[in-house]
Amino acid sequence: MQKTTFLMIMATLLTIHTSISQNGNKIDEAIPIDGTGLGVNFLDYDSATSSNLSPLCANSEDVFYKHTISQGDNRLTIGMVSAGTTLFTEIDYQILKAPNGDTGNLIEVTCDKYEVLLIVGGSFQTIIKNVNSGDDYYLRVFKPSGVGGFLNSLLNGTSVTMISDYDSTLSIGSDTQSKLQVFVNDNQIRLGGNTLYDAMKIFSLGGKQIMYASYKANIETIDISSLQTGMYILTLHNNEGSKEIKKFIKR
Question: Lower CB density within 10 Å: C or N end of the chain?
């Protein structure tokens, strides 16, 4: 009797867990993506309903994917690739931005579609520059219509990319900042050409602040002997609000 009761409780918990898992049917159930070429799940679209979320881009069932910009990243790449099938179709999509994760203040970045050609396939890629850490981006994909029994094969050949990184060529602030050079050895960071910054913070790749220091003059060197081996994010600041971000490796 006790064994039977235990099994019933476990089955109930499994059902509850399954019902609240992230299947992308609503924006608060968005499927998290952090990588390139990740395959989509046909079942997410097979069971999808229309969220009717504004701003509305198309009238169809929709599935949401989500990426949060990591500390130190300033560029976001979003894309989809679909292998060719035995029919021509179009896939509608929408990119939304939630500043600081606030889904009550959604901003439409784009509303577009890409064609999936016979045998050839199709794809799209969007690069968004100067993004801010902590912002959430959503890729909203609308279920293709008119594909009938081909939906399974179409989606099984479709992958999603949502990944953010740091691009040192993107300018942040004034032109003077581009003259800054960062040299790292085992225990010290040396800044060359620094005419702006007198305060710094160092973060882990997970966004945790590890170090902070302010200086009486522009920074020339930073002691990193206390850091363990790994990759970190250095942010430089001044009282005028200028900011520059650099990734570095402590060896």
Answer: N
The CATH architecture one would assign to domain 175-250 is: Sandwich (2.60)
7, pLDDT greater than 60: no
CA distance 247 to 75: 14
Reference 97, options 105, 85, 107; nearest CA is: 107
Considering the entire predicted model, what is its pTM? 0.64
Give strand pairing partners of 126.
78
d(CA 63, CA 56): 13
Residues 232, 205: Cα–Cα separation, whole Å: 6
Instruction: Say if CB 193 and CB 179 are below 8 A apart.
Output: yes
Give the CA distances from residue 203 to residues 67, 194, 223, 233, in Å, rounded to whole numbers and listed in that order: 20, 20, 14, 5
- The conformational region for residue 243 under phi > 0 = left, psi -120 to 50 = alpha, else beta, is beta
The residue assigned the tokens 């902590």 is 134
What residues form DSSP beta bridges with 87?
none
The pLDDT assigned to 62 comes to: 95
Looking at domain 27-165, its CATH class is: mainly beta
Domain ranges of the chain: 27-165, 175-250
What pLDDT score was predicted for residue 224?
95
